[in-house]
């Protein structure tokens, strides 16, 4: 309907924070399961964790942190009227997202070729806890990968809007909220990385 | 049943629209239109599921096979449960009456995110369509029960994945509404609408919205895991692969117990609105009622384990969950006592909304007390998975939330249609429903105590008489429901005109014209008194 749109920046941000909370709880369910099964299968989890390819995980961590930084800088840039810079930074963040997914694809291909995937005969022969570990990993990382994809698309759209001038110093709620979303994606990975690649 | 033609009242938000025909509804961002959209879709699904419930009762009318075989019975109670829970009672209040009256009650022109509000309805419909598709494609309707317990739901050949995905989409819609409502209540209250003057219905929606956004994601991940289990064979709950089915039950009930508060809290909010208006007295203990909504939401999040007393938990866990469950009874009882105290020495007018509200108190109390029987581990072991449980939860969600929903229909719909229903048939309908209800479900409680299990399509001959009684009760109930429907439908089409404040309420929705104009308020209202301060409403 044609009513004068009033902008409530604080309201938009509150809504986004609430939504991010729900995302956190979504992944929280997976971390809960991880905790419960870790208590049951400490040795099997450790054995499986040592099999993970640390190199892939490290690279992806660096990529995501970099892109998160770029997204944050894009928000500051737009606030200061630097629209071109903001578009460049967002573009960089989107590319990082794409590289992350490619890297993930390579990692998974590698794991598959070694026979590590749900229902594989190698895992069927291994102690049961190991299969649980990898299943948890694939579901959690898969869900996270889906979020990387969604976040990248979101950042790309926002970059186009910034380029066209729909998003500007006076109204950047969409940009700020997309950046918040991207930080969440980053944050979740910061939990996944140590739990599956490092501490075991 | 599309409310496209405002035949009687060419006024207010009914006529003031940029688009025409159906598009003026399904693309509208006006909270009142979205509320009505929700109302009709939610209520439509309710009627479908009632029909399924009646079929279940017909099958149970006599021992042996009556009208269907075991597989059909399994599918039917699953679909009945899934539709009732996920398509009617969980989205019901927030979607329909929440959308219709909450923005007006806080003095706002609309919700904080009107387009997200519309998206929420679209997601709901998409989810519903997916669930319905799952009934007729693939391996046929799921036969797992609405709880989708693994490992069975991972193995059955029926169309579980698609149905579960549909529920996931509906859950997303629920989250969107929750985010929207919390933001609206925080940001868009009119001047003078302090937290202490918030109508109790709004308080209950607020508490509900928090449960929605904190619990629904857990359901989301649980559903994702079912699909992963079926499609990828992850084996996370499959004992043969190291998984543990009990873990599934924990995850499922971490959502689904709080979900019962999504079903009941707004219903309690409705009752807290209606009782003071029809007793012509300010509500007793406003603060305690508002606070107890939050307390129920908070304490209720910690008791999920009482669904698993017989699943093989540790004794310590059983003790703790049993104790916590009893604690939730306290804030619920506070509400009941406050309603009763409000009624005490009130000048009570027994019109349809009030009759439904009073029966809410009665039926909800029976539901609550039978709930305590199941909250105590010792007695639960006797009644677990018997008809007793079926009786209990119908008393709570149907006798409680369902009757509150009917109360809300009689109380608020005239405001939005501008016309009134006839009082006498409304009371007849109520009497039939109330009587039928108790015959139908009290028999189940007794049958359960005698040991008849639930989710069985057949039973021993000694259970035959009570089952027949129960089935007859279901027909009385259905007759009452039909009368209610016809009466409301005819009244809202061509009944007497409803003034702007037919009941003498003091909340803001009664201060604006009937039906409300598109933007609700001509000027931003300034609130100067509480929601149950009846001085100045023209009613003694
Ligand atoms: C005329 C109305 C209704 C009738 C006749 C009816 C009847 C039944 C019957 C016979 C069962 C199966 C019992 C068993 O074999 O275990 C059942 C299950 C159930 N009903 Fe209803 N019911 C009605 C309304 C409702 C309402 C309003 C709700 C909720 C809002 C509801 C929610 C459920 C649920 C969740 C189940 C459990 C399904 C399962 O075990 O998976 N019912 N109902
Ligand atoms: Cu429960």
Automatic annotation (TrEMBL), chain A:
Segments traversing the membrane: 12-34, 54-78, 85-106, 136-163, 179-199
All residue ranges annotated as the Heme-copper oxidase subunit III family profile domain in the record: 1-200
Matching PROSITE patterns: COX3
Domain of life where this protein originates: Bacteria
Keywords annotated in UniProt: Membrane, Transmembrane, Transmembrane helix
The protein's name in its UniProt record: Cytochrome c oxidase subunit 3
Family statement drawn from the similarity comment of this UniProt entry: Belongs to the cytochrome c oxidase subunit 3 family.
Classification via InterPro entries: Cyt_c/ubiquinol_Oxase_su3, Cyt_c_oxidase-like_su3, Cyt_c_oxidase_su3-like_sf, Cyt_c_oxidase_su3_a-hlx
Topology term for the membrane: Multi-pass membrane protein
Species of provenance: Geobacter benzoatilyticus
Organism phylogeny: Bacteria, Pseudomonadati, Thermodesulfobacteriota, Desulfuromonadia, Geobacterales
Compartments in which it is found: Cell membrane; Membrane
Pfam families named among the record's database cross-references: COX3
From TrEMBL, chain B:
Presence of keyword Nucleotidyltransferase: no
EC number per UniProt: 7.1.1.9
Residues in Cytochrome oxidase subunit I profile domain copies: 25-528
SUPFAM superfamilies in UniProt: Cytochrome c oxidase subunit I-like (SSF81442)
Membrane topology category: Multi-pass membrane protein
Subcellular location: Cell membrane; Membrane
Record key words, sorted: Cell membrane, Copper, Electron transport, Heme, Iron, Membrane, Metal-binding, Respiratory chain, Translocase, Transmembrane, Transmembrane helix, Transport
Catalytic activity: 4 Fe(II)-[cytochrome c] + O2 + 8 H(+)(in) = 4 Fe(III)-[cytochrome c] + 2 H2O + 4 H(+)(out)
Pfam families with a match to the protein in the record: COX1
Main location class: membrane
Domain of life per record: Bacteria
Pathway recorded for this protein: Energy metabolism; oxidative phosphorylation
Segments traversing the membrane: 36-56, 76-101, 121-140, 160-182, 203-228, 248-271, 283-304, 316-340, 352-373, 393-413, 425-448, 468-490
InterPro entries for the chain: Cyt_c_oxase-like_su1_dom, Cyt_c_oxase-like_su1_sf, Cyt_C_Oxase_1, Cyt_c_Oxase_su1_BS, Cyt_c_oxidase_su1_bac
Similarity section: Belongs to the heme-copper respiratory oxidase family.
Role played: Cytochrome c oxidase is the component of the respiratory chain that catalyzes the reduction of oxygen to water. Subunits 1-3 form the functional core of the enzyme complex. CO I is the catalytic subunit of the enzyme. Electrons originating in cytochrome c are transferred via the copper A center of subunit 2 and heme A of subunit 1 to the bimetallic center formed by heme A3 and copper B.
Name this protein carries in UniProt: Cytochrome c oxidase subunit 1
Gene name tied to this protein: ctaD
């Amino acid at each position: 309907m044609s009513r004068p749109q009033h902008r409530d920046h604080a309201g938009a941000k509150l809504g986004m924070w609430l939504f991010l909370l729900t995302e956190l709880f979504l992944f929280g369910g997976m971390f809960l399961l991880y905790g419960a099964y870790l208590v049951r299968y400490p040795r099997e989890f450790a054995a499986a964790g040592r099999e993970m390819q640390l190199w892939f995980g490290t690279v992806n961590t660096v990529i995501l942190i970099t892109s998160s930084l770029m997204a944050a800088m894009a928000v500051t840039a737009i606030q200061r009227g630097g629209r071109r810079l903001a578009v460049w930074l967002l573009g960089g963040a989107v590319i990082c997202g794409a590289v992350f997914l490619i890297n993930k694809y390579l990692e998974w291909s590698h794991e598959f070729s070694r026979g590590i995937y749900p229902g594989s005969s190698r895992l069927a022969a291994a102690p049961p806890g190991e299969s649980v570990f990898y299943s948890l990993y694939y579901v959690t990382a898969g869900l996270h990968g889906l979020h990387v994809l969604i976040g990248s698309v979101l950042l790309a759209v926002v970059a186009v809007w910034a380029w066209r001038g729909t998003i500007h110093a006076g109204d950047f709620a969409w940009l700020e909220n997309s950046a918040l979303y991207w930080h969440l994606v980053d944050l979740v990975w910061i939990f996944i990385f140590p739990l599956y690649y490092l501490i075991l | 049943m599309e409310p496209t033609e405002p035949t009687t009242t060419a006024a207010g938000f009914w006529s003031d629209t940029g688009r025409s025909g159906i598009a003026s509804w399904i693309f509208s961002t006006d909270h009142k239109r979205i509320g009505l959209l929700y109302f009709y879709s939610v209520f439509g699904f309710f009627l479908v599921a009632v029909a399924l419930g009646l079929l279940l009762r017909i099958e149970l009318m006599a021992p042996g096979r009556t009208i269907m075989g075991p597989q059909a019975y399994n599918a039917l109670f699953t679909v009945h449960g899934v539709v009732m829970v996920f398509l009617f009672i969980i989205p019901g209040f927030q979607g329909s009456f929440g959308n219709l009256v909450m923005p007006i009650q806080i003095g706002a022109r609309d919700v904080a995110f009107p387009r997200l509000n519309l998206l929420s309805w679209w997601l709901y419909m998409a989810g519903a369509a997916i669930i319905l598709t799952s009934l007729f494609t693939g391996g046929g309707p799921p036969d797992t029960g609405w709880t989708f317990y693994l490992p069975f739901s991972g193995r059955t050949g029926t169309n579980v994945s698609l149905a579960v995905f549909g529920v996931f989409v509906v859950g997303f819609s629920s989250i969107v509404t929750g985010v929207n409502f919390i933001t609206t209540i925080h940001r868009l209250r009119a001047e003078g609408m302090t937290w202490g003057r918030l109508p109790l219905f709004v308080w209950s929606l607020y508490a509900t919205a928090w449960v929605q956004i904190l619990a629904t994601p857990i359901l989301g991940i649980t559903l994702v895991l079912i699909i992963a289990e079926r499609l990828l064979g992850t084996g996370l709950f499959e004992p043969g692969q190291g998984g543990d089915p009990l873990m599934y039950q924990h995850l499922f009930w971490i959502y689904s117990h709080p979900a019962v508060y999504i079903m009941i809290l707004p219903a309690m909010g409705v009752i807290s609105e209606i009782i003071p208006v029809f007793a012509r007295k300010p509500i007793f203990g406003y603060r305690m009622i508002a606070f107890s909504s939050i307390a129920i939401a908070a304490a209720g999040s910690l008791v999920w384990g009482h669904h698993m007393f017989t699943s093989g938990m540790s004794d310590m866990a059983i003790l703790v969950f049993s104790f916590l469950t009893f604690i939730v009874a306290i804030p619920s009882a506070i509400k009941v006592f406050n309603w009763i105290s409000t009624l005490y020495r009130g000048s009570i007018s027994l019109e349809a909304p009030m009759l439904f509200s009073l029966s809410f108190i009665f039926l909800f109390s029976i539901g609550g007390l039978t709930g305590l029987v199941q909250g105590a581990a010792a007695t639960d072991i006797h009644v677990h998975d018997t008809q007793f449980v079926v009786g209990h939860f119908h008393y709570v969600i149907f006798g409680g939330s369902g009757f509150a929903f009917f109360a809300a229909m009689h109380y608020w719909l005239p405001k939005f249609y501008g016309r009134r229903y006839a009082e006498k048939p409304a009371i007849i309908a109520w009497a039939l429903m109330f009587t039928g209800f108790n015959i139908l479900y009290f028999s189940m409680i007794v049958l359960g105590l005698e040991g008849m299990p639930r989710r069985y399509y057949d039973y021993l001959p000694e259970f035959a008489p009570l089952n027949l009684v129960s089935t007859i009760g279901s027909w009385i109930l259905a007759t009452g429901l039909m009368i209610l429907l016809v009466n409301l439908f005819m009244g809202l089409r061509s009944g007497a005109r409803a003034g702007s404040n037919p009941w003498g309420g003091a909340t803001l929705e009664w201060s604006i014209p009937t039906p409300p104009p598109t933007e609700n308020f001509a000027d931003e209202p300034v609130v100067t008194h509480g929601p149950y301060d009846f001085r100045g409403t023209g009613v003694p």
